[in-house]
Amino acid sequence: ELKPAEDNLITVAINNTLSSDTVPQGSVVWQNNARFPAGYFTLNYNFDFFNYAGIHRSVFLYTTPKVFIDDIDVTTKIDGTTGHVTYAIRTVAEARNAPLEDTQGVDVTVELRDQTGKVVGTADGSSGEISVPNAKLWWPFTMVQNDRDAGYLYTLVVTSTDSESKERDVYRLKVGIRTVSWTEKQFLINN
């Protein structure tokens, strides 16, 4: 249990033991002779590098309020020059001893902001749609020549507020408005 304003100890165990279920694959060879101590093993593998172990990427430790945003699903579509951002948000109410997805008493608000931070659409509720007139569409950088807005991303700002404790959780998600489709011979972005 986390002790606020005190030192807290976090222990991380790392294991580079190979098996048929690991990548890369290998096996454990138990050494049962007098040359090795009891319980000693070596690894058997068929690759030409040493199987180092450790944490090789950034690790972030964060806290959440007792009612928090657990998952966000976003889909986009285009109708002429209007972009549509459809969202579904799942919150978790740990404090209520309720089913995990019980969102009763949790208010959810959603804002869609452009790259300058201007709000271009809002919605209330854990699911819905925001329409953006004259939307700047997401394109791969190399697809549209001299387009400064290629790769354009909006920011979806989701806020959940617990009606009992008034605690808030805020999550920001980058969103590109675009469509993806295909035929037998083509892969189409924005039709």
From TrEMBL:
Belongs to the glycosyl hydrolase 2 family. Residues 67-178 form the Glycoside hydrolase family 2 immunoglobulin-like beta-sandwich domain. Pfam families: Glyco_hydro_2. InterPro entries: Ig-like_GH2 (IPR006102). The lineage of its organism: Eukaryota, Metazoa, Ecdysozoa, Arthropoda, Hexapoda. It comes from Allacma fusca. One of its GO terms (molecular function) is carbohydrate binding. One of its GO terms (biological process) is glucuronoside catabolic process. This is Glycoside hydrolase family 2 immunoglobulin-like beta-sandwich domain-containing protein.
